[in-house]
Fold:
Amino acid sequence: MSSFEFWYTAILIFAMTVALIKELFKPEITVFSVLILLLLGGVIDEKEAFSGFSNSGILTVMFLFIVAGAMQQTGILNRIGTVLLGRQGSSTSNTLLRLMVPVASL
Structure:
């Protein structure tokens, strides 16, 4: 690896980390932008850039993000949370009991 590739990659990773911590953009935009910049900078080739998408573990995580996003958009997570945890202001012991019963049954 040449000095240019090293420093280019290090700067991009640092910038990506800062952007993710400060939430400057959506995480998927930030990460994909760095992938494209690494591709354009000649650090990786097309095969390397997109080989991760064929990994079944990555595909599973991507699918779970899609399902979680859909559940959040529909508001079902709020309803499930209210059913499981009760309304705000409930006693701590009541909230713990409402959470422990489903978890213990699973």
